[in-house]
Structures
1.
Amino acid sequence: MYSERPSLVAGAVVWTNVPSGPGEGRVLPDGCMDLLWHDGRLLVAGPDTRAHVTGGAGGAWAGVRFRPGDGPAFLGVPAHELRDLRVGLADLWPAREVARLTARVNAAADPGSGLEAVALERAAAGDPLLHRLVAGLDAGRPVGGLADELGLGARQLHRRSLAAFGYGPKTLARILRLRRALRLARSGVPLAETAARAGYADQAHLTREVRELTGTTPGRLLR
């Protein structure tokens, strides 16, 4: 069972997941990075360009999912260095510090709260310019117009996006559009109308993007 709540870390959420049984899970790309706890260990999930298929690691998971662009400030690592990766926190930070934080999370009332306390201790203020970029892309605005509005050239925007999100602004726009479409479809909006409202050319375009980014069909994804 999956559950989440707003975090005290600005823009983040705290989530827990206890799989109901064996089998694959599918974590969809969302432009975010997560600090994870599993089986007494601390890990990091980098930004995904495609769905991350889970399996074989049973037991409870917990995480703090930072809003897009905020994870690198917490970790001190550019997002593109962790793109499509899951790594131990000890691969990024000194072992003694990770051991201290791991003991703190394991001693907490629940792992999610322990992770949140760690994130609060080290959280850094996000970049307002990047937050504006994300908000604009999430609203379906074109990359070029947003770059002009933010006073960034194409190369500068791409470079800053790689560091903050793990990929360029056009890839981030595709991922956010997919998330927007899934919210509509899950609320009961028919797929053809979902495609039009989310900014796809037609339902076939939506279906192709779902396959490309998630590895499955809209029908299977929405079951």
2.
Amino acid sequence: MTDKLTVSVLGTGIMGAAMARNLVRAGHTVRAWNRTRAKAEPLAADGAHVADTPAEAVQGADVVLTMLYDGHAVLEVMREAAPALPSGAVWVQSTTAGLESVADLAGFARDHGLVFYDAPVLGTRQPAEAGQLTVLAAGPAQGRETVAPVFDAVGARTVWTGEDGAAGSATRLKLVANSWVLAVTAATGEVLALSRALGVDPRDFFDLIEGGPLDMGYLRAKAGLVLDGGLSPAQFAVATAEKDARLIMRAGEENGVRLDVAAATAERFARAAAQGHADEDMAAAYFASFDEKPA
């Protein structure tokens, strides 16, 4: 089998558009679709075919890649695509979805003769655009030679977590990783807010922890977006971060674990969204610390 494939990318938001571009750059034929066509249209200039419907997008596809808002959206779109899906096509499901959704999506794949890979990615806009995502993948060993060129085009590293995509082992690891990412993001906002309230220059805090075990490049990057006014365009949006936080909470509840930090983080994102920051970078959770926007 040639390593040049026809890949259908369903969902061309922040992550999907970047992944589609990197697939084109790697020499693959890319057929892209987005519910709001205007978000997919710029991909035509990069060499992708922009389709009007999911069914049109998946015609002749070797691999279908879904990168949508949540599991419900994925199932809805794949139902629209189903009449045109070729039997035996590979489905790379990269949307961050809940564990229940992964099982439902894997069942849909089984019913339609698709080879299912649970393959969420770790990273935001910048690594996505650079093709430096980390792909977390679970799915049958036989057939990985088909998905390998796709993963190589969009990511710098692929971490295999198992051979049964329906078990959701990749999604489980993604939820654990996201619980850390979102907690650190929320804590960054609170550090900046408390600094402001107490009249502390944030640079004094960064100087205090510099080079020690409390220092983090991610902390400095997210803080910089707030301090330097770089919240738009979002690396990862507040609204999507809230959705992921609630998926994490639900996974904990369903498995007998109380996740107080995840619950509080979800509420911070919800408040920031209500204040008008839904489409800004998730670092805008900073504003949830204030009843009014700080001057």
3.
Amino acid sequence: MRVVVLVVVVPVRMVWDVLVAGARGLDRVLLRPVGRGFAWLGRVLVVVPLSWLYRWFLTPVGHGIAWVVRAFGAALAWVGKAVFYWPWVALWRYVAVPVGTAIGVGVAWLVHHLVVLPALWAHRRVLAPVGRAVRWVFRGLGAGLARLVLWLVVLPARWCYRHVLTPVGHGIVRVVRGIGAAVAALVRWTVVVPAVAVWRYVLAPVGRAVGAAVTVVARETGAAFGHAWRVAGYVSRAVGRFLATLLRWVFVEPFRWACRAVLTPVGHAVRDVLWRPVRNAVREAGRSVRRALGAARQSVRQTRAEVRRALFGAPKRPEPAAVPEPRREQAVPTARTLGKTSGRDVSPSTRGPGLGDAG
């Protein structure tokens, strides 16, 4: 099986390795440079112009439009308040509210004396006594009907449920339980027990044997494919290294030799003879132009200052603030030391005993 699988897998593995190597080379040689080039073009042709347009055109224009819209909105709001809000507020506050308050007080007084007081009198003198009499009558009728229903309906129904329906229901339950137990025993011994025996002694052993055989076949097949894939990888790697070495000695090494022995010296010569002098000349020209522009700007500034001074006069210079005199510190007398005096010389005869005379 391993030999057959190896013969089948080796071409597939070699084709797979060729596709992987080709994809990596295509990504390294073509896709990444092309992607970087498109990214650079997109940044130069789209992102930078759009950024400049947004920063130096759209943003100021948007700020101006926003300021205009804000000012127009504030003006419209003020006009709307002056036309629609403030007059109605004044009308409501100084006309409608006082008039409505006066009318409400009058209507409330009329309703109180024409409706509320007569209704209170009618409720207290007429409706309350009549309601109490009707409640007493209905309470007596309800008590009689409740007693009649109790003796004619409730007590007979309770007796019938206790002495007739309950014994009959218990008997029916016992009969149904006996029939259910008999049927369950019949189903168990005629269906369940034979089915369990067939499963335990026939189907389970056959299933274990079939499962073991399928597992062995699948494990061996998987191991054969894994071994064949690894061996095919070794073969494909050896063939790839041989082809890579051949291509390197046929194409890469001649190109490297040409680059090292021919192109690099030519490039250095071009750099030293042509590129550096041109670059230095361009830099010097740029410096000269910048110095000339700086001198021109300085001249323009001086001319503008002279014209402003001639038209409006010289600007007033602030008077310098008075600097306070520094405080003089008092002279500190030098400290006395052994064998020295301050202010005048003292002869040894008049000087007191020192440390040397203590003995």
